[in-house]
Design goal:
By secondary structure, this protein is mainly α. 54% of the residues lie in helices and 7% in strands. It folds into two domains: 5-186 and 301-330, 3-Layer(aba) Sandwich (Rossmann fold), CATH 3.40.50.620; 205-296, Tyrosyl-Transfer RNA Synthetase (Orthogonal Bundle), CATH 1.10.240.10. It contains 13 helices and five strands. The strands form two sheets. Strands 1-2-3 form a three-stranded parallel β-sheet. It has a two-stranded parallel ribbon with strand order 4-5. Strand 1, helix 1 (18-31) and strand 2 (36-41) form a beta-alpha-beta unit. The longest helix is centred in the C-terminal third of the chain and has 30 residues, at 301-330. The protein is globular. The mean pLDDT is 97. The structure holds tryptophanyl-5'AMP (TYM). Tryptophanyl-5'AMP binds next to strand 1, helix 1 and helix 7.
């Protein structure tokens, strides 16, 4: 049996939101109680789309602050930024030579992010999933907590691991990492359009709840969120064609820790304004303390730098040891 090891990453591209929190960060905190965990601020991934250098710097620290504010403990988990462990870029190069162009051509996230003019997208954006596989396999991680949008990238990481093991005749050298995707909030949707995922890049700030939002922001955004003109139904099936309503109910169910069935039992026949009042309360309770803590932590940047430095040292030890074996397998001297 391989030892269980968790790895996950978050891009430092500004405000983290409720989707990042429910899809990933909340799970990170639960997992650190049970397993050895490595959490990475993936700055090399962020620069696949141009970032202003001064913004990138601040966003890395803000992402670390968000990790700590949601409950990650640097004594339990390794917390560091990707570019400070050079093994990520080195293994990504090796994986560029293992991964197949046909595999990358299937990645839907590249298609979404590159938009209509693919010729103008960076090469980095195209080979991004190979770097992601390198992040995970550099530590031989076995479990990867992510939202559903990363599932395809995880499948690619497994394909790369398997091909490497076959090509270099070393079965079981890399584990095939398993995604850990939350059941009900694997894809938190936009508050304005229930068919799109909540994301940092959607133009309207009303589409998302940011971890730094104040009580009033949360109340206003939930008030304006799209719901449904009919009353709340008594069964989940009736919500199939109502993605905005289902999204709000799912968020409420997850944060209040009550199953969706029970929530529907309790609320069926009521207007969505009833749900919205309750949802605002639970969100304010859960999110505003995190936002306040992020702001407090950002007042002491030297502390955040120290957390990163210590994490980097620990990550580097594991990475270097594994890289030594990887170089050997490939035949690099
Ligand atoms: P990123 O930075 O876009 O998002 C960080 C995490 O948040 C999850 N997430 C969501 N979950 C549910 N609903 C949403 N609306 C939502 N939006 C974001 C993402 O699934 C992710 O878990 N490629 C990754 C970062 C990465 C990584 C890795 C992850 C790089 N290397 C290695 C795991 C392992 C990304 O861009 O996540």
């Amino acid at each position: 049996m391989k030892k269980k090891l968790v790895f996950s990453g978050v891009q430092p591209t500004g405000n983290l939101h409720l989707g990042n929190y429910l899809g990933a960060l909340k799970n990170f905190v639960i997992l650190q109680k049970e397993m050895k965990c490595i959490y990475c601020v993936v700055d090399l991934h962020a620069i696949t789309i141009f970032q202003k250098p001064e913004d990138l710097n601040n966003n890395v620290l803000e992402t670390v602050a968000s990790f700590l504010a949601t409950g990650l403990d640097p004594k339990k988990s390794i917390i560091f930024n990707q570019s400070s462990v050079s093994g990520h870029a080195e293994l990504a190069w090796i994986f560029n030579c293992v991964s197949r162009i046909g595999w990358l051509n299937r990645m839907t996230q590249f298609k979404d992010k590159a938009g209509s003019d693919k010729e103008k997208a960076s090469v980095g954006l195209y080979i991004y999933p190979n770097l992601m596989a390198a992040d995970i396999l550099l530590y031989k991680a076995t479990h990867v907590p992510v939202g559903a949008d990363q599932k395809q990238h995880l499948e690619l990481a497994r394909d790369i691991a398997q091909k490497f093991n076959n090509d270099f005749n070393c079965s079981n050298f890399f584990p095939l990492p398993e995604p850990l995707i939350p059941k009900n909030v694997s894809r938190v949707m936009s508050l304005r359009d229930g068919t799109k995922k909540m994301s940092k890049s959607e133009e309207s700030d009303y589409s998302r709840i940011n971890l730094k939002d104040k009580e009033d922001d949360i109340a206003n955004k939930i008030k304006k969120a799209k719901s449904d003109s009919e009353a709340i139904p008594d069964n989940i099936k009736a919500l199939e064609a109502k993605p905005e309503a289902l999204n709000l109910l799912n968020i409420y169910s997850e944060i209040s820790n009550v199953s969706l069935e029970k929530v529907l039992n309790e609320m069926s026949g009521k207007e969505y304004s009833f749900l919205k009042t309750k949802l605002t309360d639970v969100l304010v309770n859960e999110i505003t303390p995190v936002g306040k803590e992020i702001k407090k932590l950002l007042e002491d940047k030297s502390h955040l730098m120290k957390v990163l430095k210590k994490g980097t040292e620990k990550a580097n030890i594991i990475a270097e040891e594994n890289l030594k074996n990887i170089r050997e397998k490939v035949g690099l001297i």
